[in-house]
Amino acid sequence: MAYNNYRPSQRIPPIVLNLIIINVIVFVAQMVFDSSIGLTNILALYPYNSGLFKPYQLVTHMFAHGGFLHILFNMYALWLFGSVLEKIWGPKKFLIFYFVCGLAAGLTQMFLVTTGAAIGASGAIMGLLAAFAYTFPNTEFYIIPFPFPIKAKYMAAVYAAIDLFGGFAGGGDDIAHFAHLGGLAMGFILAIIWNKTDKKTFY
Q1: DSSP string for 22-90
Q2: Is residue 63 left, alpha or beta, with left meaning phi > 0 and alpha meaning psi from -120 to 50?
């Protein structure tokens, strides 16, 4: 996935950079310590009625990932959307946004899905996608394998539709569709509220 008519600057803003670093460190720790202490299971988010849920999991699950491609795509999207949004909002506001979306994703997942465990930053990332699509709706991307560009507003709608179908179809694809939807919805809500209360944010 790449921009067609807009590119983030090469310098990564501080919160995005530090989030990427933390995610990478946790991923390396998972590879090192999973065989001995089951670190991924400790960090993962479990359903509230599973007997395995701990409040800290609402935060830690956002920094654990299930494989190299999982963290690669999430960190790429964090850089792609987050770099622009952090420069618009500033570090503090961006960090609040990121964690609120991640928490919304986790709460949605733990209350709507009664089996399994969830890991990954995807819920928070979907919030970034929603805010980016709301702020820059006509920015175009190329998404592999499609040979034509797609606007951000349509891309967000496509991902929402995929997660709605995947969530309610229950196909057992090991994707936390409801977490994605929770993060996406919260991202749109915050973007709309902030646009109304702070017009200069979205100029």
Answers
A1: HHHHHHHHHHHHHHHH-HHHHHSB--TTSS---TTHHHHGGG--SSHHHHHHHHHHHHHHHHHHHHHH-
A2: alpha
For residue range 61-81, list pLDDT tens digits in order.
Answer: 999 999 999 999 999 999 999
Query: Which 3-state string (H, E, C) describes 77-142?
Result: HHHHHHHHHHHHHCHHHHHHHHHHHHHHHHHHHHHHCCCCCECCCHHHHHHHHHHHHHHCCCCEEE
Distance CA 180, CA 77 (A): 14
Residues 76-101 pLDDT 10s:
999 999 999 999 999 999 999 999 99
Backbone angles phi, psi at 149, to 5 degrees: -75, 155
Residue 67 Cα distances to 27, 73, 74, 119, 155, angstroms: 8, 10, 11, 11, 24
Contact present, 123 and 102 (Cβ < 8 Å): yes
**What SS3 class is residue 3?**
strand
Q: Are 107 and 124 in contact (CB under 8 A)?
A: no
What lies within 8 Å, CB to CB, of 91 at 6+ separation is 13, 14, 15
Predicted TM-score of the model (pTM): 0.89
Question: What's the CA gap between 152 and 161, in Å, rounded?
Answer: 14
Amino acid at 58: L
Nearest to 201 by CA among 99, 132, 141: 132
The residue to which tokens 């067609």 are assigned: 4
